[in-house]
Amino acid sequence: MSKIYFFLIKSITFVILTLAISVQAQTQIAFASTFIVTNENQGNLNVTLNLTNPSTSSVQLVVKGAPFSTANSSDFTLSTQTLNFSAASSTTQTITIPIIDDAIVEQHAEYFVLTLENPTGLTVGTNGYTTIYIKDNETTAPIANNNITLDYVGSFDPSGSSSSTCEIVAHDPISQRLFTISSVTKKLDIINFSNPTNLSLVNSIDMTPYGGITSVAVKNGIVAIASPNANEQLNGSVVFFDTNGIFLKQVTVGALPDMITFTPDGNKVMTANEGQPSNDYTVDPEGTISIIDITGGIPSLSQANVTTLDFTAYNSTESTLIASGIRKVKSSSTLSQDFEPEYITISSDSQKAWVSIQENNAIAEINLNTNTITDIWPLGTKDVSIPGNGMDISDNNNQTLIANWPIKAYYTPDGVANYIVDGTNYLVTANEGDEKEYTAFTERTTISAVALDATSFPNSTMLKANNNAGRMRITNANGNTDADAAYEELYCLGTRSFSIFNTQTKTLVYDSGDDFERYTALNTSISNLFNADHSDNVKKGRSRAKGPEPEGITLAELNGNTFAFITLERVGGVMVYDITNPNDVKFVDYKNSRNVSAYGGDNGPEGVIFIKAENTTTGKNYVAVANEISGTISLFEVNTTNLSNNTFNIEPKTFVIFPNPSQKGIVYFNRIADYKMYDFTGKLIKSDKNALTINTSQLNSGIYLVETSEGVIKKVIID
After folding, report:
1. Which of 712, 706, 616, 615 is nearest to 668 (CA)?
2. Residue 191 pairs with which residues in a beta bridge?
């Protein structure tokens, strides 16, 4: 080997070794953790930084303000500063941050971000920022006033073997039967309710020959079933039975009828027909609403009595409706195809109906005198960045952190109810949230999966972290407001709350904010199941996806006050609120019959009904809940002991008809009442106001139903 060649080899080796030593000796600084949680009353918080190969160097520790942080100088004491190091510096650096323990009730969790910037003589490692959460120690679970309470009676499994589902429940006061549905097994179950503490199965009707089953309603001895076609993109039907399960009639309605209800006067039946597309989106039927006139009785019912309303007239005003806030999710569909009517609520005078168009975040108003759609209006969004509207949105940080985020939530309600205050109708909505999710199209994505606009979200790195907001489910159908690929706004579906809207002004009057999450997170009776799914007991399993997920809603008037009962589909249970004054709503009670220690009990509540004391054999009020996952009916007695008669009006007195059975002639009431009388096919026979008697001399012998204006129903037998 020549001397020159040997010299070159030594020189190259020296350079490589020098570079290696130089790389090994590089000074680096990083936070030990990017995720830190502390309590407001902790005092001082020590934040650790790891310094590798100390040398003369410096870096700025930057305290980031909004939009990076929701906490500020009133919550902690720390300023942006320069950190200087030398070769003698410790490899573990500690920043001490005094946490301010104030006496102010704040958002359950606030956070601030620290970053390492402008390094000199060193580099910033992978953990160049940290998010520090402060849990407020004044924030507590909402306190129930317990003016009424739900007392658990028991649960009943119609299948007898935990082999079915149970989505909807309806009650008939004449036969004292419950009617429940299982869309999985396609069965209508008829349950004996004459003894609420000992329910039993009367009969189970296979709905397969009719197509299927998605919903049930009952009134005046008539059972109405929403039955989708076996091919759900084709028109479905409504099937009528008597309370023994004997088939009466079947008529055609729109595609995929998913909810069914009677008008309060019993003259009409309505269905919300979702019209969902096929999985490959090659067929996308229009969402519609069907109205069935049954005033002539079920035996004479024909297709001529069915009116199906569509939204094709609104296709030409699509851009205007979208600009107003109504969502259109699938751009290639028409607006009438994109609309998916979900739930119906009808005014007490049977003159108007409101239909939630869930995925489109809209309400349709129906004039039931003319059977026409008179208006469609958007519900708007809820700003999750506002204190009181926080959400726990990560399922993998092992911490309960109900915090504010730069997200707007569409209300997108499932269940809807209405009531009147001072002559104005108010809508009460259970804001579940629902995405369009099919094989050929899905709007579901996460914050970490989308590009965020640098101007709108300078904090994108922090947001996309999985222990912050990265795993939160959002929609890809809204938020990208310009032509590039990045999102300027973030939208999720469902507000984890219930709301009250004024139907005249079409504005939000009340929203329960973060009540549902605060209660289930901070009340020790249920906190171990905070944001658990309905199929397991994993805490926070649904934090990134609609949380407790309010689903069903029903209202009841007790002693002059109006109460709302809201089911939480995922964590389970029923929330109770006094909504008598929509401007002064009060939390009343929460009960959950799900097992906390081990998975079991009643899981996946959906449909919920209130059963009046006057319509039961025990003279007690009940709430019945249909639980989809466990396939059970859970029953609660509504205890009104704490309602003061000095504060509230007395309930309507017991209504009695006598003699009963009766010979043709006169039957008497025990008190004055407004009434309507129907034969057993549902045909209206007589009606009167301020009456004390009914003249039955011209009636045929048989069974009749008398319904008062308060909704009390009695059976009359005329011999």
Report:
1. 706
2. 178, 201
Ramachandran angles phi, psi of 208, nearest 5°: -55, -40
* Whole-number Å distance between alpha carbons of 672 and 668: 10
pTM recorded for the entire structure: 0.90
Residue type (1 letter), 540: K
Please state, in angstroms and rounded to a whole number, the distance separating the CA atoms of residues 609 and 169: 7
Q: CA 132, CA 105: separation in Å to the nearest integer?
A: 19
C-alpha 614/C-alpha 304 separation (Å) is 37
pLDDT digits (tens, 9 = 90+) for 483-525: 899 999 999 999 999 999 999 999 999 999 999 999 999 999 9
Note the pLDDT tens digit of each residue in 674-707. Answer: 999 988 788 889 999 888 889 998 899 988 899 9
691 versus 340: the higher-pLDDT residue is 340
User: Confidence class of residue 57 from pLDDT cuts 50, 70 and 90?
Assistant: very high
- Identify the bridge partners of residue 172 per DSSP, sorted by sequence position: 177
Q: What is the CATH number of domain 28-135?
A: 2.60.40.2030
pLDDT for 372 beyond 90: yes
* Residue 592 to residue 537: CA distance in whole angstroms: 14
* Alpha-carbon span 715 to 719, nearest angstrom: 13
- Supply the DSSP string of 385-404, one letter for each residue: TSTT--B---SSS-S---B-
pLDDT, tens digit, 9 for 90 and up, residues 253-273: 999 999 999 999 999 999 999
Strand partners, 150: 638
Q: Give rounded-to-5 percent helix, strand, coil for the chain.
A: 10, 40, 50
Q: Are 297 and 249 in contact (CB under 8 A)?
A: no
Domain ranges of the chain: 28-135, 149-639, 657-718
Q: Are strands 35-39 and 129-135 parallel, antiparallel or unpaired?
A: parallel
Interval 636-650: pLDDT, tens? 999 999 986 544 344
| CA end-to-end distance (rounded Å), the chain | 127
In sequence order, which residues have a C-beta less than 8 Å from that of residue 523 and are 6 or more positions away? Answer: 141, 590
Q: Say if CB 408 and CB 384 are below 8 A apart.
A: yes
Q: What is the mean pLDDT of residues 406-431?
A: 98
pLDDT at 653: 53
- pLDDT at residue 715, as a whole number: 86
The pair of three-digit structure tokens given for residue 12, joined into one six-digit string = 């190259």
What is the C-alpha separation between 31 and 50, in angstroms, rounded?
6
162 Cβ contact list (under 8 Å, min separation 6): 630, 631
- Looking up tokens 């009442």 gives 673
Amino acid sitting at position 573: G
Return the DSSP state at 581: S
In this structure, CATH architecture of domain 149-639: 7 Propeller (2.130)
CA dihedral defined by 164, 169, 172, 175, rounded to 10 degrees?
Answer: 20
CA distance linking residue 634 with residue 153, whole number of Å: 8
Which pLDDT value is given to residue 23? 46
Q: CA separation (Å) from 360 to 162, 261, 440, 465?
A: 35, 22, 19, 30
7 Cβ contact list (under 8 Å, min separation 6): none
Q: 657 pLDDT band (50/70/90 cuts)?
A: confident
Taking every pair of Cα atoms in the chain, the longest distance, rounded to a whole number of angstroms, is: 134
HSE toward the beta carbon, residue 655, CA cutoff 13 A: 26
**DSSP letters for 33-74:** -SEEEEETTS-EEEEEEEEES--SEEEEEEEE-TTT-S--TT
Type of residue numbered 564: A
Q: Name the average pLDDT for the chain.
A: 94
Q: Dihedral angle at the C-alpha atoms of 437, 438, 439, 444, nearest 10 degrees?
A: -10
Residue type, position 158, single letter = P
State how far the Cα of 449 lies from the Cα of 638, in Å rounded to an integer. 46
**Of the candidates 591, 586, 588, which has an alpha carbon nearest to the alpha carbon of residue 568?**
591
- Residue 168 in contact with residue 180, Cβ under 8 Å? yes
